[in-house]
Amino acid sequence: MKPRCIQPGNGTRMQYCLAMLALIWYVFKTTIPSNGFGNRFASMIIAGNWKMNLTRQEAVALTTAVIPAASDNLGIILFPPSILIDTVRDHLASGNGNGGEGIALGGQDSHAAVSGPHTGDIAAPMLREAGCTWVLLGHSERRADHGETSAMVAAKAVQAIAHDLAPMICVGESLNDRQSGRAGDVVEHQLRDSLTGVEPGACFAIAYEPIWAIGTGKTAGAGDIAQMHGHIRSVLTSINADHASVPILYGGSVKPGNAGDIFDQQHVDGALVGGASLDADQFLSIIRSARSRA
Ligand code: PEP
User: Fold this and answer.
1) 255: which of 26, 44, 76, 181 lies 20 to 30 Å off by Cα?
2) Mean pLDDT of the 174-201 span
3) DSSP class per residue in 37-101
4) Ligand 1 centroid, distance to 49 Cα (angstroms)
5) Is residue 219 in contact with ligand 1, taking CB distance under 6 Å?
6) pLDDT of residue 138
7) Which of 171, 250, 272 to mutate to test the pocket of ligand 1 (most atoms within 8 A of CB)?
8) Active-site residue numbers?
9) Are the beta carbons of 156 and 110 closer than 8 angstroms?
10) Rounded to whole angstroms, what are the CA distances from 187 to 58, 127, 193, 206, 224?
11) What is the pTM of this model?
């Protein structure tokens, strides 16, 4: 049987229009990456990196406490250990009452390959299938513990984006880099190398995390944060004008007591929170701070 061609002008113009609309909708659905916030970036994003912490029971209790904080004007992302993703996802789905919007789920890493002999690793499509819309890439702990380079981060980012995950790419200088006045250059190189191959229009975020501030209780000064975030914004813009509005989060010992000052800085679009994200009261307080500025 010959395929039926739909041609305009032969009595099937309406069918043609409907087919075109369906095609446009399909292309839109399959090519626009999602980030769990309805394909737009919230004005502020607060992300909790649980690292290698929490039992299943503790994860459920923490998720239960965070669920009421979901709101339209703020993006919340939880990055649980991969073995707890299903549990947190199911818990969010049953208790959110918000259709899952407002609280997104992410993996803490994903491999540059889709599958294969990589014991202990996890692939981007696996995270996507588990309900994640985000993945953390290039966290300084992975760069240090697993020897990850910015080139490896870029390969992972490209694969993540190809599987509809928004990467949150972490960059940040060491104490030595800062003290020797090289912080700006180091971060610029990390950015350029970690974004190689990431297409304009891709959905991603940057987390600026000075290594010396992670888990140490030390935070960069407000002026240094503002300066570095401004620098990151101009590097992103120079890589591609389409990257100009990418959210830039600050990370490094963000606590209820310093969150407000940090969020008041220009080009700070939220926070990646480690230690304080494990404590419901502290995490909720940071969320409230962000919401009052969103
Ligand atoms: C982090 O792990 O990304 C982080 C910023 O940790 P902390 O808030 O504990 O410094």
Assistant:
1) 181
2) 97
3) STTS--SSEEEEE-TT---HHHHHHHHHHHGGG-BTTBEEEEE--GGGHHHHHHHHHHH-SSTTT
4) 7
5) no
6) 98
7) 272
8) 139, 209
9) yes
10) 35, 28, 10, 11, 13
11) 0.87
